[in-house]
């Protein structure tokens, strides 16, 4: 077993429910192995600024049920550059840190990989993002909670749509991937789901709405991932009004999807991945992400987590087409 005496961890990029559970798992697993643990406050920006604090088992008490990240997070412009990463590496050396655990998405993994490439520093990534768009894992921390949060809102909007005979466009997060949109769309009974991975023309939407009207449907719900090629939900609503004289009400769920107490699924996933991140470092693994696929832990090179595209479930796409018709 590789000897690691001092380990640091940070959260980076967008926050996700379950990050606190992952922090807790890393801290307590490391301490159980006799490792000194240090938390870095404020992500990579905090690392550059030397915001490093020793952590104990009590440091992570009563946080597993809380959303967000108590270590705070940021998107560091300075860490995008070699000078910033060198400063971060120097801080880690000043504290005699042997390994770093980074909890975040592909942008955070870019930084961790660069730290390894340029300074040969031991790094392990834990996928924490509500978008679920990281290659190498079936689920990312925060995704399940985000889906539940969005679905709760969509169920409420459906009630209003039915009561007033209205068409609603509901925008969910997903700039580059439609995982949230597809799952909540199916579970919420949406008539149409617009995801970045699939082409949908404005003409198709206009014709579909006319078809629904002729069939006697008086209310409809369309789920739109924010990164769809037709634009945002507000832009699509404007185009439908202009081109087809169709009135649509828009609801943008926005950052409500990031917050809230994590579900049991996210807490369990975060606990597992936090535990395995420490074990991976002890087993001399580095520059990899720990993930969870087919009910087993997986190890994926950090480079592959963004170079390889994680596809939407083709069967779910087929199911959506059948059930929404």
Short description:
Helices cover about 45% and strands about 20% of the residues. It contains 11 helices and 11 strands.
Radius of gyration, CA atoms, in whole angstroms: 22 Å
Main pleated-sheet profile:
7 strands, mixed
Number of domains: 2
CATH class of the largest domain: Alpha Beta
Estimate the mean pLDDT confidence. 92
As residue ranges, the low-confidence spans are none
SS-based structural class? alpha/beta
Q: What descriptive keywords fit this protein?
A:
325 residues, alpha/beta, Rossmann fold, 2 domains, seven-stranded mixed sheet
Give the topology.
Blueprint: E1 6-11, H1 19-32, E2 36-40, H2 43-48, E3 52-55, H3 82-94, E4 99-104, H4 106-119, E5 122-127, H5 143-164, E6 167-172, H6 179-187, E7 192-194, H7 202-214, E8 220-225, H8 233-244, E9 249-252, H9 264-282, E10 288-293, E11 296-301, H10 302-307, H11 314-324
Parallel strand pairs: 1-2, 1-4, 4-5, 5-10, 6-8, 6-9, 7-8
Antiparallel strand pairs: 2-3, 10-11
Helix pairs in contact: 1-9, 3-4, 5-6, 6-11
Describe this structure as you would to a colleague.
The protein has 325 residues and is an alpha/beta fold. The chain has 2 domains: 6-142 and 262-307, Rossmann fold; 144-258, Rossmann fold, CATH 3.40.50. The protein contains 11 helices and 11 strands. It has helices at residues 19-32, 43-48, 82-94, 106-119, 143-164, 179-187, 202-214, 233-244, 264-282, 302-307, 314-324, and strands at residues 6-11, 36-40, 52-55, 99-104, 122-127, 167-172, 192-194, 220-225, 249-252, 288-293, 296-301. The strands form 2 sheets. The chain has a 7-stranded mixed beta sheet, sandwiched between helices. Helix 4 (106-119) links the parallel strand 4 and strand 5 (122-127). The longest helix has 22 residues, at 143-164. The chain is elongated. The N and C termini lie far apart (57 Å).
